[in-house]
Design goal:
three-stranded antiparallel β-sheet; alpha+beta; 278 residues; 9 helices; DNA-binding; disordered C terminus; homodimer; globular; four-stranded antiparallel β-sheet
Chain lengths: 278, 278
DNA sequence: CGCGACTTTGACAGATGTCAAGGCTTGTGG
DNA sequence: CCACAAGCCTTGACATCTGTCAAAGTCGCG
């Protein structure tokens, strides 16, 4: 669990400057580990929710049903993602979430998330920015599915996953992404057969290949080009922070952040309960 | 401007319980009115932003470019929407926003938005829930473009717009939605010619017709069915609220909310600056 | 009244979907 | 360790939807 939680905190930190205390408050959030088999539902559409989950291992996704039983996967979540963080703000599920592969999730009660947001306003901020980042990905998916042709859509997806996994290093590299071709079809809005044809094309052109669930990128530049991929939507230029902004304009270091542990700093927006030191 | 601002506050209130004071704090946000012609850019991709805008009149949208100059509209915003509220949290534009028709927007400086969020934690919450709602729409668009065939996509879009405009009353009704067929094509990921063919089908089957930019819904049930439309994603079941939660479990009325005007209530999460009464 | 911007139509091309069969992997049980 | 079964991948033939191109028709604005 630890590693995925660390990853989650890193993603938050990429958009919001968090102190060590705040980071730890997130890391030590309690929850319940749950193991899932591929295809198993995590939450169903319309259900009331009382917890949000962190993906610890494996891959999860959101699925929407269209008429004729056609399925559309509208989001994919990797280890370290928190797919339904939104539910902490709106506790009714607005789509079905399922494990795309064998997966482990860590369910954190909304109550705990609420507590931590109340104690640390910067964490609320961080969550909101995380949601903003998520929305940017979804928007890019609209473009992917709406404006690119088949091979591009698939190439784009693999580019995105590679970057999100932090694996896109150099021209050639491999990563584990055990998604079925039928699921790729549901992601890209294509038929499974056509996905297969596209993968064959990518393979025969020495751009990428898939062997026993491992994705081998053979020519990253080419893949990026074919996928019309610009990673800009995955990152924020610089981390921000409103809460507890240092009055002197001095950047909060992990040092100065630690002050939160002893008392209230200069300009708190929240009246913080004293942080619990586990 | 007033009417669209009221609409915005209503949309916030649908998801977050706001007091009269808080609502007024939003309503009286200062800004600058700006008039735009159809096709004109509001913000370009990647630009730093210092304000967010409320759509006062007309229709705006986000546009992403794919290779070969193909454009995809990933979101449409109506009067009362705040298309780039996200920028208050992440002040770099992540897509180009343009006026889809002649439009008027009201630009509110981030500074002011930040102020109001700082003073009223419930407003921060409300903004976050608004962003969550926006994301739900975007996700539905992925499904629309990825999993439905041409006529359905178009029908679905019109259903969504009708509901968002609050115009879907009864079996037959009309509303003004002056979008070009070429823009419809950019929204649905189809070619303009094919959009035309689909519109002709809808017309000949007496489901809906378009006359001089007015959309006439002739058979709402049928349109909903053809569009595979379920309005669930547009609404939240019940408004929520964390901030200043009444300790007795008593519901905040506009009365009790007014207490905020005089001082700090029992369990504030924020140390509020005294609200400014304009 | 005339021009420019949209819409409408037709003919044709191309991309992607569907159906169906056969070949591989992978995991399980003997 | 082998054999089998189930699920997944691959391929081919063919159908269909949607895109492209081009021209004519319509609407609205100056």
């Amino acid at each position: 669990m630890n590693q995925s939680m660390t990853r989650f905190v890193e993603m938050l930190s990429a958009r919001t400057r968090l102190t060590a205390i705040e980071r730890q408050a997130i890391t030590s959030l309690p929850g319940m580990t749950q193991h899932l088999t591929g295809g198993e539902n995590i939450v169903r559409f319309g259900e009331p929710m009382t917890s949000a989950c962190l993906v610890v291992q494996g891959f999860c996704g959101r699925v929407e049903m269209a008429s004729g039983g056609k399925r559309q996967i509208t989001a994919v979540y990797l280890a370290g993602d928190m797919p339904d963080l939104y539910s902490a703000f709106q506790p009714t599920s607005n789509s079905t979430m399922e494990a795309l592969t064998k997966a482990t999730v860590f369910r954190i009660p909304h109550r705990e998330l609420g507590d931590v947001m109340r104690r640390y306003p910067a964490i609320t901020e961080a969550f909101t920015r995380y949601l903003v980042g998520d929305a940017a990905i979804t928007m890019e998916w609209v473009t992917n599915v709406g404006a690119r042709e088949a091979v591009s859509r698939i190439a784009h997806l693999y580019c995105e996953i590679a970057v999100r996994l932090g694996q896109s290093i150099g021209q050639r590299f491999s990563f584990y992404f055990p998604i079925l071709q039928s699921q790729l079809a549901e992601i890209t809005g294509l038929s499974a057969v056509h996905v297969n044809r596209c993968l064959m094309t990518l393979r025969s052109e020495r751009v990428m290949s898939i062997e026993r669930r491992m994705v081998n990128v053979l020519d990253w530049n080419r893949l990026v080009e074919m996928g019309d991929f610009d990673p800009g939507y995955l990152t924020a230029p610089a981390p921000q922070r409103f809460a507890n902004w240092d009055p002197e304009g001095q950047v909060l270091t992990e040092q100065s952040g630690k002050k939160d542990g002893i008392g209230i700093t200069a300009t708190p927006f929240f009246v913080a309960d004293p942080p619990v030191n586990s």
